[in-house]
Amino acid sequence: MHLSLSSTKHHQTEAMTKTILSLTTLLLLSSSLLAQYQIGLVPRQSPDQGVYQKIGYTSIEIRYGSPRVAKREIWGNMVPYDKIWRAGANNATTIEFSEDVVIEGQSLPKGKYAFFVIPTEQGKWTLIFNKTAQQWGAFRHKADEDALRVEVLPDRTAWEETLQYQIEPIGFEYGRVSLLWGNVKLSFEVETAYLSLLADLVEERVAKADENIRWVVYIQGAEYLINQEENLAQAGEWLTKAEKQAQNIVGWHDQYYPKTYVLGHLYWVKARWLATQEQHEEAISYAEKMKVLEGKYTFYGKENEEENIDQKLSDWQAALEAKQ
């Protein structure tokens, strides 16, 4: 079947009209043109990036679009002063905390947040943690959804052509999150409830453990606190529980470390804890109880060099004699 030229033009015009109407309808239905007009065929000019880090038991993950400076004037131009900025490119930057945290001295519940920044030409910049994590840029930001706002001073830094985030652990309870772009470094402090999380974890492990090895969990929890020189009162409580449970063990499974090894470990950790309380005579007594335990696999026999046991005993003896 052949169509005339005029018929062909008519059908072409009709098809084009339908195509235009379909595209127009698609665009009109979009709540945000930029947000909806992404089909994934062309790589973004500001590629998506992510950074993940644990501070103590708290996981922190940041997802963001990473634009380049590309010879543009950033601050006060591409990123205007005194206006909310998405702190990246494309979708709003998101930051997620697995546990409750404290940001610059203010509490923030665990969860995933959109992260915005209000830069200023002079003075502190405002950081915003917004409860609507998934949103395009900052165009639909709602202040009543802000979970937290804090203010920090930006720092000057070495040039960073591409925007990036860093998460820096500082010990087990503190960390620093930084945004770096151009010659600006914008940082905020994060504090985690590390010790309370550790206490919860120990009790959770104790509840799930076989009755005969619950004392081992308490020993390891106490030793950890002693190593960190943190919450020594809690360490003492756990060691008291471990000693009490050790006295009531009615059997020992071959899959565990030899009982004499674990008992020696308990005595040594208790000795170290007593030394932190300057009870050196009692510390020496527990260390001697550890040394006389017999067996092919004893704590003193295996760990003397690693734990520097003999040297510590000498130091405690010297401290005891100095008191007398």
Characterize the biggest β-sheet.
6 strands, antiparallel
What is the number of E strands?
10
The global form is: elongated
Helix content: 25-40%
Q: Order of strands side by side in the largest beta sheet? A: 1-2-3-6-7-8
Strand content: 25-35%
Radius of gyration over C-alpha positions, nearest whole angstrom: 31 Å
Cα-to-Cα separation, first versus last residue: 118 Å
- What's the mean pLDDT score? 86
SSE-based structural type = alpha+beta
Q: Count the helices. How many?
A: 9
What is the count of structural domains? 2
Order of helices and strands: HHEEEEEEEEEEHHHHHHH
Low-confidence stretches: 1-13, 15-44
Q: Concise description?
A:
The chain is α+β, with helices and mostly antiparallel strands.
Write structural notes for this entry:
- By secondary structure, this protein is α+β, with helices and mostly antiparallel strands.
- It has 2 domains: 48-192, no CATH class; 195-323.
- It has 9 helices and 10 strands.
- It has a 6-stranded antiparallel sheet, with no helix packed on it. Strands 5-4-10-9 form a 4-stranded antiparallel sheet, with no helix packed on it.
- Strand 4 and strand 5 form a beta hairpin.
- Residues 1-13 and 15-44 have low confidence and may be disordered.
Characteristics:
10 strands, disordered N terminus, single chain, elongated, 324 residues, six-stranded antiparallel beta sheet, 40% helix, four-stranded antiparallel beta sheet, alpha+beta
